[in-house]
TrEMBL record:
PANTHER family in UniProt: BLL0085 PROTEIN (PTHR47756:SF1), BLL6612 PROTEIN-RELATED (PTHR47756)
Residues covered by the RNA polymerase sigma-70 region domain: 18-79
Superkingdom of this protein's organism: Bacteria
Lineage: Bacteria, Bacillati, Bacillota, Bacilli, Bacillales
Protein name: RNA polymerase subunit sigma-24
InterPro entries: DUF6596, RNA_pol_sigma-70_dom, RNA_pol_sigma70_r2, RNA_pol_sigma70_r4_t2, RNA_pol_sigma_r2, RNA_pol_sigma_r3/r4-like, WH-like_DNA-bd_sf
Boundaries of every RNA polymerase sigma factor 70 region 4 type domain copy: 115-167
Cited NCBIfam families: sigma70-ECF
DUF6596 domain residues: 185-285
Gene Ontology biological-process entries: DNA-templated transcription initiation
Length: 421
């Protein structure tokens, strides 16, 4: 394996393992910024050593062990932080050299959930929570986050730094709250888990169309949250959404890792156990609430797909109605874009295109690659191939995901061929 290949492999491993490492270190040092620094130290050591010694059999355990040892060394050296040192010192036996491998086998999910509740504290703004989530829990770089926000990288970097300082300055506890405090923070936590899942389902950047392990982690955290807050309908709604969406993960790419769009997926390969679990969670959500919230409505939409034997047999009229309901409880131009797709499937591409053309003037979608992608698809169905090609090429120029870029350029080439016939 060449040096560049090794570095790409390390980067992929880091995106998967870094949230777990940072969460465990935060539990040790009670400081998110310091935990991230220590985790980065472990990454630097891996970049130095792995090209020489090879990728370890269990790279996640290697990173965790190395990061913990750095944390222990720091805590032992730092005399000016007596209070934190004393707090951790009484548990030092859990982190001695002899016990380090045993500690790696412990359940770390609780640490991730505590970290999420910590980063969702109301002392942080929503933008700060989102940026910090993408950085710590999804493993995105500052540059990738800046592109997602359509904001300068320096602005995102400052936002993340300020967020970590704010958490530290306010001594935000590393714990899952109870009672009213849990309820008050629940909506923000749901947003974060939803964000994690979406990043895994459709990766913002990189060489892979999906990041299944991130989806699995988000789903597992959602299930844990449903046990903690069993009477909250939207918790079950989010779990239902993730269960049903997860059922398609194996069919979203082919053996080469190339994307397979929803209409082309082999529905016989969708995971029926996950679908049944999702439908049961959706029913629990319905039984607890008088009206469906945004996550439950999205779950109901995915349920329509899951219960349809084929794309033609999908109840697109119901899906369009559900998107209409979703737009009332969660107004968003992206929801409108999805409604346009449903309208086009139910009543024809010309009707969907009319909605999309209205969205073309929305400034918040200026750099959103799915807008020209959807418009290209509708134009293609209307046999306006020249216009469709331009839209697919524009979408390809906006996406940060290499697999998606290739897909869009292939669709543009397909339009060009049809034009020449």
């Amino acid at each position: 394996m060449s040096l560049s290949q090794t570095h790409r492999t390390i980067d992929a491993i880091w995106r998967i393992e870094s949230p777990k490492v940072i969460a465990r270190l935060t539990g040790m040092v009670r400081d998110v910024a310091l935990a991230e620094d220590l985790a980065q130290d472990a990454l630097v050591i891996a970049l130095e050593r792995w090209p020489e010694i090879g990728i370890p059999e269990n790279p996640g355990a290697w990173l965790m062990t190395t990061a913990k040892r750095r944390a222990i060394d720091l805590l032992r050296r730092t005399k000016v932080r007596d209070q934190k040192y004393a707090e951790v010192a009484q548990h030092t036996t859990l982190y001695t050299e002899e016990d380090i491998d045993h500690a790696l086998d412990e359940e770390i999910g609780d640490d991730l959930l505590r970290l999420i509740f910590m980063t969702c504290h109301p002392v942080l703004s929503q933008d700060a929570r989102v940026a910090l989530t993408l950085r710590l829990l999804c493993g995105l770089t500052t540059e990738e986050i800046a592109r997602s926000f359509l904001t300068a990288e320096s602005t995102i970097a400052q936002r993340i730094v300020r967020a970590k300082r704010t958490l530290n300055a306010n001594n935000v506890p590393f714990e899952v709250p109870v009672g009213d405090e849990l309820t008050d923070r629940l909506q923000a936590v749901l947003e974060v888990i939803y964000l994690m899942f979406n990043e895994g389902y459709s990766a913002t950047a990189g060489d892979n169309w999906t990041r299944p392990l991130l989806c699995q982690e988000a789903l597992r955290l959602g299930r844990v949250l449903a046990e903690i807050a069993p009477h909250e309908p939207e918790v079950h709604g989010l779990v239902a959404l993730m269960e049903i969406q997860s059922s398609r993960l194996k069919t979203r790419v082919n053996s080469k890792g190339e994307p397979i769009l929803l209409m082309d997926q082999n529905r016989a390969l969708w995971d029926q156990l996950l679908i049944r679990r999702g439908l049961a969670a959706l029913e629990r959500s319905r039984s607890l609430g008088h009206s469906l919230g945004p996550y439950s409505l999205q779950a109901a939409i995915t349920a329509c797909h899951a219960q349809a034997p084929s794309p033609k047999e999908t109840d697109w009229v119901r899906i369009a109605a559900l998107y209409e309901a979703l737009s009332r409880v969660m107004p968003s131009p992206i929801v409108e874009l999805n409604r346009a797709v449903a309208i086009s499937m139910a009543f024809g591409p010309a009707f969907g295109l009319q909605i999309v053309d209205e969205l073309n003037t929305n400034p918040s979608l200026k750099g959103y690659h799915l807008l020209p992608s959807v418009r290209g698809d509708l134009l293609m169905k209307l046999e306006r191939y020249d216009e469709a090609r331009v839209e697919f090429e524009r979408a390809a120029s906006l996406t940060q995901n290499e697999r998606e870029r290739t897909l869009l350029l292939n669709r543009a080439a397909e339009c060009e061929k049809k034009t020449s016939i």
